[in-house]
Amino acid sequence: MATTQLPHQNFRPTSGFCVTSCQLSTALPFPPKPFKSRNLTVKTRQNLKWAVKLSLVDQSTPPKSTVDVEQLVGFLYDDLPHLFDDQGIDRTAYDERVKFRDPITKHDTISGYLFNISLLKILFKPDFQLHWVKQTGPYDITTRWTMVMKFMLLPWKPELIFTGTSVMGINPETGKFCSHVDFWDSIVNNDYFSLEGLWDVFKQLWIYKTPDLETPKYQILKRTANYEVRKYTPFVVVETNGDKLSGSTGFNDVAGYIFGKNSMTEKIPMTTPVFTQAYDAALSKVSIQVVLPAEKDISSLPDPNQETVNLRKVEGGIAAVLKFSGKPTEDIVCEKEKALRSSLIRDGLKPKTGCLLARYNDPGRTWSFTMRNEVLIWLEEFSFS
To answer: Which domain of life is it from (predicted)?
Structure first.
C-alpha cells in the first residue's frame, strides 16, 4: 500500500541528481555539517540498502543550492492532507523521474505514483492523517502519518491500518522532490519487496464483525505488529459493579437504563462496545459499562432508577489496544492483557494499572471467530518517535 511512497534507493536523473543528507556527506569532497533533528529517530536510515548514490561529472566543488527546505515543510503540511481527496497533491512539486517505494509497491515516475493513488481511492477509500512534517537533513524531509482503509471488494469490508514515516529526498538542482520512501511501524523489513509487509496486509483481512452502531471516537496514532495506540475523545458511560472481566453481571442493569428504566423513562440509542473495566493490578475490582451517544451531555441525561447504577464521564486520553476474535473467556482476556502490557513495557511506554475489555458483538447472534474483542490499557503518556 503506497501511502506516500518513496525510494530506498536513489537514481541518477537525466539532469541533476537526488540526494539525502546521509548520502551527501559521503559523496562530496567538502561535506556539510550533519543536520540534527530534535526528538526524532529515523530508524529507516538503517534500512536504506540502496540509498542515493551520487555520480557527479565534476566533484571538485560542492553543488550550490538555493532550496528553501523550510518552505517545503510548510508546503507538505498543506499539500499531503489532499492525498486522497478530489483536490489531490500538487504534481509540480515532484520531478517527473521520481522514485516512490513502500514495502510492497514501487513506481519510478510521478505519473505512476498518481495512478496508484487513484487505484487506492477506488479499492480502499483511504483516510489519510498527517501528524507532523520535519526537516531531517539538508535535502530530506520526514513525515509521520496514519492511513486507514476499507477493502471495498470484500463483503465484510475489512479495515486496513498503516502508520509510519515517509522520507522525502529533494533534488538540490530543481528544488523538487525526487524520492519518497515509506516505512511502516508494523514491520521490521521495510525493503521492497517485503514478504513481511505482504503478510501484514493479508492478516488484516480477517473477518471482524463490528455492529453498525455508534462507538467512542478515537484517532489511531500508531499501529505496531502487536497493538494500536489510540487517542480517545471524552465519552459518557452508564456503569455498575461487575464480577469479572469476562462476566455479564450487571449488564441488565446498565442496559435497562438505556431501554427506559431511568427518571424520564427515556429510551437511549444502543452503542458499542460494552466495556468491562478492571481498576486494580489483580483485575478483580471491575465495573461493566455501556457507552452513551456522543450527543448526550452528562448534565442533561436522566438519572438512573437504581442506586447501584451511575453515570460517569470518561475523560479520554491515550490507550494501547490489542484486538482479538473468539469468545473472550477470563483466561484469554488475562492472557491478552499480560501480552499487551509486556509489549508496552518492552517498547518503553508507561501503562497504567488495570485494563478494559471491549466487547462489540451480541454473543448469541455472532459466530465466535468473527467476534471483535479488544483489551485496552490507558497510557501515562505517549509521544511519537
So the answer is: Eukaryota
> Which residues make Cβ contacts (< 8 Å) with residue 319, sequence separation at least 6?
218, 229, 230, 232, 356, 376, 377, 378, 379
Q: List, edge to edge, every strand of the sheet that includes 310-314.
A: 218-223, 228-232, 317-324, 373-378, 355-359, 274-278, 286-291, 235-241, 310-314
Architecture of domain 229-381: Alpha-Beta Barrel (3.20)
Question: For the purposes of burial, counting CB atoms within 10 Å of the CB of 255, is it exposed (0-12), middle (13-18) or buried (19 or more)?
Answer: middle
pLDDT tens for residues 155-185? 999 999 999 999 999 999 999 999 999 999 9
Kindly state the cell numbers that stand for 193.
519487496
Is the CATH number of domain 69-205 1.10.287.3510? no
SS3 251: helix
Record the pTM.
0.86
| All cell numbers assigned to 243 | 464480577
State how far the Cα of 103 lies from the Cα of 7, in Å rounded to an integer. Answer: 10
The predicted-structure confidence for 330-349, as pLDDT tens digits, reads as follows 999 999 999 999 999 999 99
Residue (of 81, 91, 83, 164) closest to 130 by Cα position: 81
Residue whose C-alpha is closest to residue 292's, from 263, 314, 276, 322? 314
Question: In terms of DSSP bridges, do strands 94-102 and 177-184 run parallel, antiparallel, or are they unpaired?
Answer: parallel
Which residues of the chain does CATH 3.20.80.10 include? 229-381
DSSP code of 44?
A: G
Radius of gyration of the chain (CA): 25
